[in-house]
Design brief:
The chain is α+β, with helices and mostly antiparallel strands. It is built from six helices and four strands. A four-stranded mixed β-sheet has the order 1-4-3-2.
Length: 145
């Protein structure tokens, strides 16, 4: 891994404006100022984490490999006192070159309902409505006789 400038968290905290936005992910100091307008979640998301360690927020969202590779593009240094795991460095270094068949978007899990559940959701309310209107018809019909 090439030598990078080492920053403290207090130095990163000075860069939290729209014109100068830095944050920390996995011990890597990132200057995301140019990425603010391009961020799919909006610039507000990045500005909320500006000047802080945003590792937890980044991991909670579940970013794609492409998004994880952007970390290297916007990296300006390392956080002081952060130690990298050897396996993580190798994995990040090996993902530098994008794969042609890799998807760059989020995949939404498709939870299909069983067919009988869809039928039940349709016919139960229909049966209740028919029962109600049949009851009303019988009651109003018997009161007029």
């Amino acid at each position: 891994m090439a030598e990078h400038t080492v920053f403290t968290l207090s130095q990163v905290a000075q860069h939290k404006s729209k014109k100068d936005c830095w944050l920390v992910i996995d011990g890597r100091v990132l200057n995301v100022t140019k990425f603010l307008e391009e961020h799919p979640g909006g610039e507000e998301v990045l500005l909320e984490s500006a000047g802080k360690d945003a590792t937890k927020e980044f991991k909670d969202i579940g970013h794609s490999k492409t998004a994880q590779n952007l970390i290297l593009k916007y990296q300006v240094g390392l956080l002081q006192g952060y130690t990298f795991k050897k396996d993580a460095d190798v994995q990040v270094a090996s993902t530098n070159e994008p794969k042609k068949n890799e998807m760059s978007a989020f995949v939404i899990k498709d939870d299909r309902m069983p067919k009988y559940a869809a039928l039940v959701e349709f016919f139960v309310p229909l049966l209740v409505a028919c029962s109600y209107f049949s009851y009303r018809y019988l009651i109003t019909g018997s009161s007029t006789v």
